[in-house]
Fold this protein.
Amino acid sequence: MLLGLDTLGEKTLNRIAELALSSQLDHVDDLTVQVKTNVDLIAQGRLESMLIDGKGLVMQQDLRMQHMIIRIGQVAVNPMAALMGNIQLTHPTQGSAHITLTASDLTQAFNSTILNAQMQGVMIEEDGQEVVLDVQSVSCQLCATGDLMIQATVCLRHQATVQHVEFYATPQIVDQGRRVQLDHVRYTQGQDLPPAITQALIERAAQVLDLKNFEMDGIHLNLETLTVTAETLTLEAIAHVIRFPKL
């Protein structure tokens, strides 16, 4: 059935877009899509703009985003599909993405089933000998200085003892905006442990902050800025939209 009224057209496109995006997520607290268009623009194969606003979005590896906003300007679409309520891009487009994470979000990701499994039986080298370690728990804190503090409880199997590690590190954008790595590591506890333990934690942190974890089908991100405060880690990125997620 063709969409007869402008408001009905926008509402229908919004609802279908919300359902399509929700299908890409493990969980969402709140998600709204606001498509600005009218029947005349749709007939020309154009949407004036699109706003995606989501709160409490849980992505891959149990990575939760406190808030994500994606703003897209003019979008070229298949007019017949749009008139039927489906968004099919005829040309790639781009917009901006604003992503906010909390310390709780990062801690949850570190202790997720998938990532936690990768932190068991980690092989490191100590004094020329292979050593196996298990990371039992990890917690993160965000600092007003722009740093990330990581605390971990580590079991070295050959000693059958539990050790505690705490260090500060500075998140930096690398690989032309494709990922984040932790630099300038400063220990406050666990300095005597093998450096490979810290390196293993840093590598897992890089996995948590890998942009692929924030992307949905057809939407790719390139980081521009990263800001850490005592409350949030905020990522500003360019959103490259190749296609819109299908329902």
Residues 1-5 have pLDDT under 50 and may be disordered. The chain has two domains: 6-102+212-241, 106-208. Residues 106-208 form one domain.
